[in-house]
Amino acid sequence: MGTTQLESVQEPKYWHLKTVLSQALDSEFSVGEILPNERDLAARFGVARATLRQALEQLELEGRLQRRRGVGTTVAPPRVGVSLGTGPHTWPGGPEDAWQPVDCTTAVPPPAVADALETGRDEPVHIVRRSRVSHGRPVAAELLYIPQSSVPELSGIDAPSGAARARAVLRELQRLELERQENAVELGSAGADEAKELDRLPGAPVLVVTTRFVAGGRTAASSVATYRADTCRLTFGDSGGVEIHAGIQQRAS
After folding, report:
1. 13-75 matches 80-235 in fold
2. In angstroms, rounded to a whole number, what is the distance separating the alpha carbons of residues 123 and 44?
3. Do 252 and 150 touch, CB atoms closer than 8 A?
4. Model pTM above 0.70
5. Fewer CB within a 10 Å sphere, N or C end of the chain?
6. Is the Cα torsion angle 148, 153, 156, 162 positive or negative in sign?
7. Strand pairing category for 218-228 and 137-146
8. Which residues form the HTH gntR-type domain (predicted)?
9. How much is the mean pLDDT over the chain?
């Protein structure tokens, strides 16, 4: 990074510094590279360390940087694009699905989920837990709720627990003819369990994408996927699936 003195700037110094740093990230640094320490950066840009920290915190919030204990500040990978397009709909667990199954349990879902599934509030359902990883870091966690009536032949499958059980449930679900899926998106904050899975602090901003899968005129499954808001963005269009966005302009968004 070259030396840039920040004088006579109308906007806050930390905000102008954030812009300068962002440009340097695009031109001088690669994904995963460690930035110089705060003392050196503050000296190069002629600002107080408090101003530098404000700029770094803003860049971290925007998903441009990652700060980890014992490692330092590194350039973050490109954001994950969560596509909510109108293209062909598919069941979870298909060949193009980037989610990884973690485990599967049978339990009573939250009341709101039970209502969405149109099952009794005391009726257990299959709960498949899956994760999404990009560049070696967790970016999303999903809970997929599937009524037992959607996978009636599951009991004959020798997959008692864990990821194998999750894959078995998804295979059975794909036997149904998917009519459509409906997505809803809202901004939320990470609870204790979600924060642990996503390597964030409790209360960190997240994007919650709820998907309703319809088959045979009823809700055959319901998914609640929680994405890190600092590493993910929504995309709209005709393409389906989830794609990784690369390139300087996309990284800077």
Report:
1. no
2. 62
3. no
4. no
5. C
6. negative
7. antiparallel
8. 11-78
9. 82
Structure tokens at 217: 């005129």
Q: Which residues pair with 213 in a beta bridge?
A: 181, 221
In the chain, where do the E strands start and end?
A: 65-68, 72-75, 80-83, 100-107, 125-134, 137-146, 180-189, 205-215, 218-228, 232-235, 242-244
At the topology level, CATH places domain 80-235 in Chorismate lyase (3.40.1410)
pLDDT at 158: 63
Q: What is the mean pLDDT of residues 167-187?
A: 91
E strand map for 22-179: 65-68, 72-75, 80-83, 100-107, 125-134, 137-146
Give the pLDDT confidence score for residue 166 in this predicted structure.
93
Q: Which DSSP letter does residue 216 get?
A: T
Domains of the chain, residue spans: 13-75, 80-235
Reading the block at residue 89, the tokens are 């709909």
| Whole-number Å distance between alpha carbons of 66 and 100 | 23
